[in-house]
Amino acid sequence: MLKLYHCKGARSLRPLWMLEELGLDYELYTLPFPPRVFEKSYLDINPLGTVPAFFDGAMRMTESSAICQYLVDRYGAQKGKAELGVAVSDPEYGPYLNWLYFSDATLTFPQTIVLRYTQLEPPDRRLPQAAEDYRRWFYGRLRAVDAAVAKAPYLCAGRFTAADIAVGYGLLLAEQIQIDQDFSPSLRAYLDRLKARPAFQRAAAR
To answer: Taking the complete model, does pTM exceed 0.90, yes or no?
Structure first.
């Protein structure tokens, strides 16, 4: 049985969305955020206290983009949805992997600083200048996404893939923490395409 531990608005939205895209059966456990503070028993499941935690039987994963890749590689062909990934033999395989890793290693890191110092810290510990610096850093890194979607509907391979789920979460997070005001028309249209997908809407509703 597939199991996913999730917090609303967190990175765990990525694998939840992929589960819905693939039409897989799964058990969903929704936790208060951050679970390491408000659901102490969760530390027995994931000692880091972060979400997601994903199980396929006894196998456990905690990196959201990697879980998306795992799901499409493991179950995509079985469910007739292999096109959500990119095959090793495809010339777009390298760009596909690059976007998957870019999504957290490069894109969302500065957002976490903005979130921390505008919302999560007590008012007396908030740092408006740091938040603004990292907001600008996020937009600098967002240029790569903007350039890609200005010339194509999706990031790679000429179609919607797990890379769009991984990177798209960063745009959704920008909306959530209210730093999306400077999105270009291309970025806004790309995000609207992602949000229009029925699988995304099902995932968001959960």
So the answer is: yes
